[in-house]
Every structure is written in C-alpha cells, then in structure tokens.
Amino acid sequence: MESVDQPLTAHSWLVVITFMVVIAVVIHPIRVPLPIPSFSRSPSRPDQSIAQQKQQQQQQQVADETSANSVIADATATNQTKQKLIFPYHITLNIATAPVLGVLFLLATRSIEGNSVRDGIVGAPESGVEPYAVMILFFSLAYICISLDMTGVFQYAAFWISQRGGGSGQRVFLSFFLLSTVMSGLTSNDVVVLTMTPFLVYYSHAVDLVTPVAFLMAEIQTANIASMALYIGNLTNVVACQAYKISFLEYSAWMILPCFAAIATCYIMLRINFRHEKYIPKIVKTPNVDPRSCLIDPVGAIFGLTVLACSLICLIGTSFAHVSVWIVTGPFALLTFIRDIWYDSRGNFKPAQVDVATCSDRQEEEKDSNSLGDEGVEAGFEESRMEKGLPEIAVPEPSIVTPVSILTGSNSNSDSNNDNSQDDDHESVETVGVSYNPIAIPATSTTAVNNNSNSFPTRDLDAAAHHQGWVKRFSHNFQQRWPLLHAIAIRMPWAILPFTFSMFIMVEGLSHSGWIGIFAKWATKLVPNYIAATYAIGFVSVLLCNIFNNVPMTILVARILQHPNFVNSPLATPEVIKGCLFALIVGSNLGACTTLISSLAGLMWDSVLRSKGSGVGFWSFFRWNMGVMPMVILVTLTVVVIELTVYF
After folding, report:
1. Which residue from 27, 460, 489, 530 has the least number of CB within 10 angstroms?
2. What whole-number distance in Å separates Cα of residue 11 and Cα of residue 485?
3. How far is CA 24 from CA 220, 496, 547, 549, 598, in A?
4. What does the pLDDT read at residue 529?
5. What 3-state class would DSSP assign to 427?
C-alpha cells in the first residue's frame, strides 16, 4: 500500500511536469527534425516532403523528354543544380510517440522505477484496474465494429434513414440523431465518429445544405452521450468500472436513465440552438440512391450484427459470474477475424486500382456491366469488399476530387483524376462555423509509377526515404493478398495502445511520487455529502477533460478516488463513493463534448472533417457546445442524484 503522506521531491515535480508536457504534445502534435544531414541535388524547397520532391522531378523529366532540346536542357539543368544540405529525417511527437518518450525520459532520470511500469501494464493490486484487460476489451470490440462497418451496413442504414425522411429536414435531422444514438449505444463513440462523420459531409453537399454544422454537432454530441449507456461504450467507462469492480449489468442499471435524460435534453437544446432554418431546413433533397447498393457484403453484415449481439448478451449473462469482460469479447473478435480471413481467402485479390466508389457508383455499375466507370478501373479485376466499400477516413493515401452530384443522381463523369479537376482543389466555401472544400476521397492504392522512374535523378531522395521502403512494400504485398484485413488494420486505432499504457504508467508514477495522495486530500474538500460530491466531481471531471483529455483524466481521478486519503475519510460514505464514481463517468463522457481537445473522439472527429476539406474551428465548436452541454450535464447529474437518493 502506498504511503498516505509521502513528501514531494525533485523527482515528484519532474513526473508531474512531464505528465503535463506529454498531454500538451498529444493535443498539439509537433514535428522535430533529427540532426542527420543529407545533401540533395534537387533545387526543391526544404519544406517539401520527399514524395513531393520526387514527383516534381518525375514530372519535369517527362516534360524534358517530350521537348526537342531535352538533351541540352538536361545538361544545362545539371550544371545549374547546386547541392543543398537538408535534414530529411524527423520524428513526430503525437499521441503514439510522446507518451512513450515521456515514460522513457522518466525511467532515464530515475523519476519512476520499474514497478511503476509493471503496475501500469498489469495493474496495481490496490487499484483494481488491469490495463492489459482494458486494452484487450477495447481492441476486441473495435475489430468487431470496424469489420461490421466494412460490410456497408452503417452506410445502408444512413441512406435508408435519409430516404425515409420524406424530404422533411426536421425529420431527417431527428432520424440521424437517433441513428447516431443507437450506433454509439450499441458499439462505441469511435465507430460513430469514423462512420457517420464522412457520410454527413457528403450528405450535406448532396442535398445542398447551407451549413452542416447542426448535423455534425448532433452527431458528435450523441456519440459521446450515448456511449454512457453501456459498459463498453467508452474506454473511460471500462477504466472507471474496473477500478470499482462494477459489472456490465450493474453499470447499465445505474446509467441507462441518466443516459436517456441526457439524450432527450440534448435534442431539445439542439433544436433551440439550431432553430434557424439555415441549420435545419424545412425541405431537403432526397438522395437518389438505392440503400441496398451500399450493402456490400449482406452475409457479412448479418454475421457481424449477430456476433455483436451475442457478445452483448454474453456480457450481460456473465456479469453475474464476475467474469472479466475481455475473456468474453476476445473470442468473438477472434471469430470475426477468422471469418474475415475466410472472406479474403476466397480469391487471389489484386491491389485495388479503382477510386473509392460511392453507393451510386456501384448502383450504376450494376445497371451497365459494360461500363466500368473511372479510367483507373482495370478490366478483369475481381472487386472485393475492400475495393467496393473501403471507408475513406483512415486511408493514408493521396486523395482525388470526386463530384458530389453522383449522390443526387445527376449525370457526372468520373474524371476526377484529370487536370481540370485540380483547379477546384483550393476553392472553399465559408459558412457559419464550418468551411469545406470539394470532397476529397483517398485512393485505395498508390498511383502507379513509370517503370523507368529509376533513371530519374532522385538517388539522394531515395536514400533519405530508404528506411521506409520495406514498410511500404510489406503493406503493398499484404494489401494484395489480404485486402479486407488490410482495410481493417489501417482503421484500427493502434495509437491508443501506447498512449493508454503510457498514461497508466505515468499515473502510477504520480502515485508513487506522492502526488495522488495530495490530490486525494484536496478531493475530500469537495464531498461533504453525496449530492455535493456528485455535482462537484462531475463538473470537475468536465473541467479536467479540457486540460488532460478524458482518458488520462479518468485514469488519474479514478486513482485519486481510490487513495487511502480519500477512502479513509469520514466523509467517504458508500453513497458518496457511488456518487463520485458515476459522476466521473458522466464527466468523462459529457466533458468530451465541450472542446475539441477534451477527448480522443473529438480529436478524431476534427481530423476526419479536415481530411474531407471541412473543419469546425475550436471556438465555434466550443460556442455551439456551450449552448447545449451545460444543461445536459446538469440534468444528467441530477438524475444520478435522484437514483442515489432512492437507492440509499
């Protein structure tokens, strides 16, 4: 058991400073150049990437070859080229790297010991949290949900709902609100962000909305609010419940009513804040798309929904036997993985040479089998599920502009690769709180390069990028053989793994260095009774989400509420402990809706919007949420207080 009144030392201050710096870098990633020089013969700008420099050189070479005086031009260019000292290598400090480097720094300075690392991975006996089990649960459910999304079932549901709206903007808004709520409640907020965000951007363009801000704000708010309903809805729920040994069924019994109250309040406040017709129009277009054309793998959709339903039922059933949740979800994820391997192994799929097809593209292809659409389509290629429905948001490839009019059934040629379409790349439309460019959909594979590219004068650049070559080759070969698994793999939130483990380790470092005990003493000042404790911990958690991000905040506050300085306080009655626990859960979920930096889902949501040429500014996001979330938080915490009053 850790010391109750451990004095602070220089190492204690170093731990807390490192913790704060790491959180800041996670929220605002930075690129740090490495002091490894290289000489380049390319007269390109130093701020260009290696790929951009090579592309420019290749384009210049092609132009020279077509000119009559190419030999003379090449000789002149060679003589005029000067060597430049560049630093092509860099490291990006972000959610995946900064926490790990922070832990290594603390170990190197002996500010934390090996037992902090061990406790941050397998769990400290006094905390009750098993970080490895949390990660297995999270990634198991993530795999099941992403695999299900690859079948097109969520896109099918979105188009089906948009058509059932009958052209009524208010009905369509309510339909998308309920769809996001159900999806987040049954899966997780991350699935909603990754699936609904790009669809809403496309939909808003297709139906000519003045601004999609009302639909986007409703999506991110319901994604975080509805994630309170089930144990598995948010990573923070799992952390808090493991700390207090709360079962799946007990959690839902306590949180289902606060969640419903929050959803209802959120809808009312959204309608008040977005009451102007430019946000939610009375009449909207109906996309001329058959929703069934979006259902790429119907059998896989049924299989995925069945697996997800069975996992939820088993989680409820095994909660009476106190079985660890990762033991339940792990086998279902493995079953889904085996099914995906079987799906990929049915044919020797070639790498995708087509652009990411929209549902209407596939619908037209089914009507006319002789027309293959874009020029990039190669005849004879067997279209896999990945080729036809690869979600756009996580593919780290160059993007091309795709006309939006295809969603409304208008005639358009798929010539987005042509030079004419490039003229529109920099056009943007400013709206209230939202700006967006023409929709960009990443290609599913890198553009083919001329086989003679090795003759280009890019030897220095190739040397600088050589360390990435084997990774790209492996990814390319893997995509050719296992296209579906590759598509799922690039969408998995791998960065959360080092981030979460490192946060657990650093919180253990804070505990061993004496900070948790001090914070626990401060926390006792906030809990004179269960009513004050519920409101205080709830609003403090919301505030800390905007300082630490919701995952580190939950890990830290859960550890504080378990410290002997808090637990042994005469004020820490059972109802106070219960109120603090559920207030922490409410704060970690609803606090994620206050600013963009307050949650991983918010950062992911903003990243997806920017990748689509859209963006909601920090202050616009804050302003719209401040018109909704304070009332939602107040109502939700009030319902928790009422439940505590009835129960105790």
Report:
1. 489
2. 45
3. 23, 16, 9, 9, 11
4. 92
5. coil
Spatial neighbors of 434 by CB under 8 A, at least 6 apart, are 211, 212, 213, 216, 614, 615, 616, 620
Reading the block at residue 568, the tokens are 């042994």
Q: How far is the C-alpha of 196 from the C-alpha of 207, rounded, in Å?
A: 16
CA distances 237 to 10, 76, 137, 189, 243, Å, are: 34, 66, 12, 12, 10
Radius of gyration of the chain (CA): 27
CB atoms within 10 A of CB 594: 24
Residue 438 is classified by DSSP as: S
Pairing of strands 84-86, 38-40: antiparallel
- 557 vs 211: CA distance, rounded Å: 38
Q: Mention every residue, 6+ apart, whose C-beta is less than 8 A from residue 165.
A: 171, 172, 175, 284, 286
Residue 157 pLDDT:
82
pLDDT at 104: 95
Closest residue by Cα to residue 144 from 197, 186, 196 = 186
Predicted confidence at residue 581, as pLDDT, reads 94
Q: Return the amino acid letter for 577.
A: I
The tokens for 46 are 């130093």
pLDDT for residue 610? 80
Domain spans in the chain, listed from the N-terminal domain onward: 37-88, 359-449+463-491
CA dist 392 and 441 (Å) reads 6
Query: Which parts of the chain have pLDDT scores under 50?
Result: 1-3, 42-49, 68, 71-72, 348-358, 360, 362-464
